Amino acid sequence: MMSAHALIVEPFETLAFMRAALVACLALALTNGVIGTLLVLRRMSLDGDVLGHAVMPGAAIGFLYAGSSPAWLSLGGLASGFAVAALARLITGERARHDAGLVAFYLVALSLGVVLVAWRGSNVDVMRVLFGTVLAIDRRALVQIAVVSSVIVLVVAALYRPLAVGAFDPAFLRAVGARAPYEAVFLALVVLALVASFQAFGTLLAVGPMLLPAAAARCWGLGVAASMALATGFGLAASVAGLLLSYHGNLPSGPAIVLAAGLLFGISAAATNSWRRLAPLIGRDA
Amino acid sequence: MTYFARFYHPRLASGSRVAPPSLDLRVSPAATGRGFADGRVLLHDVTVRYGRRIALEAVSGEFAAGSLTAVVGANGAGKSTLLAAIAGVVRLAGGVVQRAARQQLAYLPQLAAIDLDYPLTVSELITLGGWREFGPFRSPGTVLRARVAEVSEMVGLAGRLARRIGELSVGELQRALFARLILQDAAVILLDEPFAAIDAQTISVLLDWVAQWHREGRTVIAVLHDLDLVRARFPSTVVLARRCVAWGATEAALSVMAA
Question: Is the ipTM of this complex over 0.95?
Fold first, then answer.
């Protein structure tokens, strides 16, 4: 029987790459909690997913150009993410939203990215771009993640009220004359957050640590700020649990973290649902 | 800039009290300038398209300052679009809307446009009415907070301030949105189907507020379906069927509609 210390603390104590992964996950949990909550509140989860894959072709071009350097991968991903976000806004701005179009978008982006990477790289490179390498995060990548995360959190803090109001009553925000393109700023923040996550979780999974903790936190019916805090907490818990799971079980770490987040979502949904059913029976407010 | 600029027209703005509202303005859509100082709303050839569909075509007319007007018409006649055009939340395909500045405008969208699942309290919702005072970045002051409590009592929502908007009945939600309008203290008030699916008791409370705004000299424009209500409480009426069918005293306008 392993002691709790050996189970939980030792992997981080002895291995530098586990510590780096933990710090990266902490930074990402912060931005993902904030951005993910806003995505869920705006009912834009699918858009987040599409943008996650939109990062792919650009990152692939970055890879072709410079190999697996984090800076070039991110720059490429940022460029194609912004391009797709702008394109999607153009399309949805003209007519009612088209989820079939969005889905087509992401399938094409994903395939294009895989083809581009496979053209010059190996299968390992493809896997790395798709699922990320949270255990191979070096100092430079760590600094990059920390800087991007800080910028995102600061921008959301500064624009908190218009972003929050725009999510529930956009006509009011426009009618009172808020002229800044908050919608576009928000999409840009989502792309930034996805690019920050890209290195750790890859293009397929980056949306997971963003949406799952936020969706789990949303179940508990808290206010916006409290939801963000809870989502961050959930994200962090999922990261620690996932990293330990992958260490002890010798499992891929990114998917393990996303699975842990999914488990938290399942528990949250089940617990709050059964409370809603149970509460009237024992005479409490649901 | 041009997007917002097209809502205003320079010739009238330079002397809004002097210039008579002649409808032969020959304005360019990109006209710039400032709006009216009072609650007058002037439409000139206003056209709105959604994709290829024309929602509103060449509507011209004037809502006098302090007027109380109902907008009626069949479904899809462009009633909500007209309000959205005046509020400046849809892009005009042509024409000009001239009215007071945004700070003097309050707009109540249809209830369906509001996301009720959003975790917002009644108090936060009403407080938004003070947006002009605190804007996107500052926090609401203590005077405003006191006003929120006061206004919530006036619409019969005292003791509900801490509730989530999702827990309210439709009638209570509409009361809360009216409280927000009261706080906005605007010269022009636009109401999109304010009484749809609302209980009779709430309707009478809200109608009293509409009458109160009218007495205070604010311009009120409301999209309505209940023609009896329009006859009883609204002196003027606009009848829309994508184009403007009739615009004037309620009885006369409604008789055109019946014919």
Answer: no
* Residue B33: per-residue pLDDT: 36
DSSP string, A161-217: HHHHHHHH-HHHHHHTT--S-HHHHHHHHHHHHHHHHHHHHHHHHTHHHHHHHHHHH
CB B132 within 8 A of CB A169: no
| Spacing of C-alpha B29 from chain mean position | 22
Residue A22 Cα, gap to closest chain B Cα (Å):
31
Among B51, B103, B164, select the one facing A177 at the smallest CB separation: B103
B172, B174, B175, B176 alpha-carbon torsion, rounded to 10°: 90
Cα torsion angle, B136, B140, B143, B144, sign:
positive
Is B61's pLDDT higher than 60?
yes
Percentage, residues of chain A above pLDDT 90: 38
Does A108 reach chain B within 8 Å, measured CB to CB? no
Nearest to A129 by CA among A182, A195, A190: A195
Name every residue in B having a CB less than 8 A away from some CB of A: 4, 50-51, 84, 87-89, 101-103, 105-107, 109, 113-115, 118-121, 128, 131-132, 136-137, 164
* Percent with pLDDT over 90 in chain B: 56
Looking at chain A, the number of H-run helices and the number of E-run strands are 14, 0
Of the candidates A103, A149, A109, A144, the one whose C-alpha atom is nearest the C-alpha of residue A129 is A109
C-beta atoms of A167 and B115 within 8 A = yes
Residue type, A19: R
Asked whether the beta carbons of B222 and B70 are under 8 A apart, the reply is: yes
Name the minimum distance, in Å, from the CA of B106 to any CA of chain A: 7
pLDDT tens across B178-232, in order? Answer: 999 999 999 999 999 999 888 999 999 999 999 999 999 999 999 999 999 999 9
Token pair listed for B150: 């006061």
Taking the C-alpha atoms of residue B105 and residue A57, their distance in angstroms, rounded to an integer, is 46
